[in-house]
């Protein structure tokens, strides 16, 4: 038993020494990026899928749990693949050119986005739209910072909020098919299901009655 424990400790020391070697840092960063992408994707998707599935999807408990597991796996896998691809391409470009330049990041992410998130499915669509909203805010702030547009005299956020909500409700009411299915489900629950009730049970306690009354 003692020799087994000594062997394990020696192996652990060797692994830790290997991880500290700078020559392998780029390759190891790619591997850890894959790990972090998988873990983060699971942490983000699992609770979201849990809530959305039990709120809006019908079916047996087994079917709901399977749907949650599939969505979590897909998000985790895609994010892991993307980080792996992005960091690998960054390292390759830096190695070839001898230095890191800003365009490397853009090109690596474009290729990774095309390969990993190019399939138009609900999860990829949701991720890309999430990023798009952040990009628009980020580019607006960058334009002000660089002096391309003047600094607003008043906080523009109230106007942005008004336009966003006005547009999305107009689309929901008159062009619903253009919205993502999960957003349609959320808005149906909020704005249409609240128009229908039969008694106190489905007015305050439940959204919809499950009996045949």
From TrEMBL:
Q: Which Pfam families match?
A: Tim17
A GO cellular component annotated for this chain's UniProt record is: peroxisomal membrane
Q: What is this protein called?
A: PXMP4 protein
Q: Which InterPro entries match?
A: Pmp4 (IPR019531)
PANTHER family per the record? PEROXISOMAL MEMBRANE PROTEIN 4
